[in-house]
Design a protein that fits this description.
Aspartate Aminotransferase, domain 1, 2 domains, seven-stranded mixed beta sheet, globular, binds pyridoxal-5'-phosphate
Length: about 375
């Protein structure tokens, strides 16, 4: 059996090696390293795939979130509501822009931001909600969009973990995640569902004016060469990364399908286990692209299990071990422990198993057997 990895990038590369090597070679020969044709082509192709009017590539997913917030003109002191249970990048950029992060609890079954908690957190200063489609599952966008409309708030989707996932709205419309709110960010970090060979990110929006503003912000606030109308940043996707992404984008649905297949096999293996809760998939099959396959271990032995897996040479991860409201950088006396019962519990129970496009049946069988045998031992 091939060595089990948390993410197998090598295996995926082998399948599209010729295509990638040829494009990278071409870029070296033309020296179109920045803003070359590959970047423009990728942008167009991603717009088509997502069915969104504007994709603005940038340097990484954290920049994408920051730039989205800058583009909306959020001002210091504005309150931005987001999930307590997510990667720190989400709250980091809010704080960095001197906006006020307002962390709220998540749902125990989907791990996504809880719309009821959002409602309770709204004040006259609230300007935006940042739902994260965590672990690849679409957040409850019907409820979130309704709250946003009622309170006149922007919705910025952090789509770093869910590219390719779908959302079926109450009105029976289908959207790709990242095209539902006012603006969205994504990351092409190598281990994401659509990953490049370095750092990369993008912003999506259907709003023409916002897209124009953002295109200037990513390029030093320039709308006309050497005229700087707003304070911007330097945030670019380079041609090498765009070429890798162009080679992978046509396979994205297949990649997500492979992840789903693996998830279903894990589900089957863990069915009926008393102390193991499999990740709930809300809605139809395509609303979860399994960036992570995350179990809850409910008998208090999660940490022992991690140790056991490590000893057996099977990788696993804890996403995330500490609630954001308890992190040194984001602590605030406004936060009361009783408002975060779910996150406080999840950080003790979750464990993510190897999940990627190259997992084999015998690997899945071995991983799940190792978990089950230990939990029942
Ligand atoms: C990966 C990730 C980001 C940041 O993306 P980078 O490209 O690493 O900057 C932001 N939000 C979430 C939820 C992520 O998983």
């Amino acid at each position: 059996m091939k060595k089990i990895q948390m993410v197998d990038l090598q295996g995926q590369y082998e399948q599209i090696k010729d295509k990638i090597n040829t494009s990278l070679q071409e870029i070296m020969e033309t020296s179109a390293f920045i803003n070359g044709p590959e970047v423009q082509k990728f942008q167009k192709e991603l717009e088509e795939y997502l069915d969104v009017k504007h994709v603005i590539p940038c340097a990484n997913g954290t920049d994408a979130l920051q730039i989205a917030m800058m583009g909306l003109g959020l001002q210091p002191g504005d309150e931005v509501i987001t999930a307590d249970f997510t990667f720190a990048a989400t709250v980091e950029v809010i704080a960095l822009l001197q906006l006020t992060p307002v962390l709220v609890d998540v749902e125990p079954d989907t791990f996504n931001i809880d719309p009821e908690a959002i409602k309770r957190a709204i004040t006259p200063k609230t300007k935006a909600i940042v739902p994260v489609h965590l672990f690849g599952q679409t957040a409850n966008m019907d409820a979130i969009m309704e709250i946003a409309k009622e309170h006149n708030l922007y919705v910025i989707e952090d789509n770093a973990q869910a590219i390719g996932a779908e959302f079926h709205s109450r009105e029976a419309k289908t959207y790709k995640t990242g095209t539902i709110g006012d603006v969205a960010s994504t990351s092409f970090f190598p281990s994401k569902n659509l990953g490049c060979f370095g750092d990369g990110g993008a912003i999506f929006t259907n709003n023409d004016d916002l897209a124009h503003i953002i295109r200037g912000i990513v390029n030093h606030g320039m709308y006309e060469r050497y005229h700087h109308d707003v304070v911007g940043v330097n945030s670019r996707l380079d041609s090498f990364q765009a070429a890798v992404l162009r080679a992978k984008l046509p396979n994205l649905d297949l990649y997500n399908e492979a992840r789903k297949e693996a998830a279903l096999k894990y589900d089957e293996a863990f069915a009926g286990q008393e102390h193991i809760v499999i990740p709930l998939r809300k809605g139809e099959c395509d609303t979860h692209v399994y960036h992570q396959y995350t179990l809850k271990i409910t008998n208090g032995r999660r940490d022992e299990l991690v140790k056991h897996m490590n000893e057996k040479g099977i990788p696993c991860g804890i996403y995330y071990p500490i609630p954001l409201h308890s992190q040194k950088a984001y602590k605030d006396e406004r936060y009361k422990e009783e408002n975060f019962p779910v996150t406080n519990q999840l950080v003790k129970e979750v464990i993510s198993l190897p999940m990627h496009t190259e997992l084999t049946d015998d690997q899945i069988a071995l991983i799940s057997k190792t978990v089950i045998d230990f939990i029942n031992s």
